[in-house]
Amino acid sequence: MKKRILILILATIPCTLGIQCGIVVHKSPQAPPASLSEQLDALFSDADLNNAFVGVAVWSEKRSTFVYRKNDDLSFMPGSNLKLCTTATALELLGPECRTKTEYYLDGDIVDSLFIVDIIITGYGDPTLQWRHSLGGVEQFQSFAQQLAALGVKAIQGRVIGDDNAFDDQEYGIGWSWENGPFWYQAPISALSLHGNCVDFEISAGDSVGAAATVRHIPPTSMVALNSQITTSLAKDSIDIHREKCSNNFYLRGAITIGKHLKKRRTIDNPTLYTLSVLLETIKRSGIIVDASIDDIDNLEYFHYDTTFQAASFYSPPLREIVYDINKKSLNLDAELLLKITGMETAGKGSALAGAGVMEEYWKRRGLDFSGVHLADGSGLSRKNLVTPQSIVELLRAMRNNIAFYDSLPISGIDGTLEQRMTMPGVDARVHAKTGPLDFVKALSGYLKSNSGDEIVFSCLVNHALADAHKIAYIQDRMCEILVQQ
Question: What is the pTM of this model?
Answer without folding.
Answer: 0.91
